[in-house]
Amino acid sequence: MKQQDLNAEKEAPRKVRRRGCPFCSDAAMTIDYKDPGTLKYFISERGKIVPGRVSGVCAKHQRELTTAVKRARVIAFLPFTTNY
Amino acid sequence: MAEAQKKEHPLREYEVIYILKPDVTKEVAEKVATRVADVITRMGGTLTRIENWGRRMLAYEIAHSKRGLYVYVTYRGDGALVAELERNFRMLDEVIRFQSVKIADEASANEVSSDALHFEADDAPAEEEQGLTLEQRLGLAASPNREYQSQDELSDEEEAMEEFS
Q1: B134 contacts in chain A (CB < 8 Å)
Q2: pLDDT tens column, A11-56
Q3: Per CATH, which fold does B2-127 belong to?
Q4: Among candidate residues B21, B46, B23, B27, the one with its CA nearest the CA of residue B36
């Protein structure tokens, strides 16, 4: 009983500020592989695609974003990796 | 009848971006553009847009080039045309990268403006512009001048050491 209380105390409620999907809230923001300026906000410094749970992008747009980033990489708008 | 014909040759909208070597001349760039247009017309497609996006920095080196001349093309055609166009790109040594993307399953019947079909190439920039690598411009790698300086610094230090002793 006591142990349970301690555990409950330990796990302080995390304050997660959930931001909405930027593509859902702003109709002017489109996903296009020819526009590396927008895509670069959704890749890490190493060039990795940022997960939707981090960036707040919804599942539908995250799928589109993933395809767009991969296409942009092929045509050398975005790097595959920065370590070369 | 119409349906059978559609199944045989479904016309779709495609776009393709191809990258030419940065040192291509105006004539070669235009020759490639003409060839692309020829292939599209020969295979029963319609060229709807061709744009010169100019010389851009590549995100990574392709065929030892850090820059590339981007050309953006949209056209209507069937799958065989895409394959034929890509076969032609592979044959051209000036084309270092290309990517075809389907933009619509149904070809639109919009009128094509003649402005969009005009391809204007520009001449290759002077050699000096391509002198320094990205690393050198960012100061990550030593440029020839800096190497010389650091040698100077080293000799100064050695002198100081000698004075000290």
Answers
A1: none
A2: 666 766 667 889 999 888 899 999 999 999 999 999 999 999 999 9
A3: Alpha-Beta Plaits (3.30.70)
A4: B46
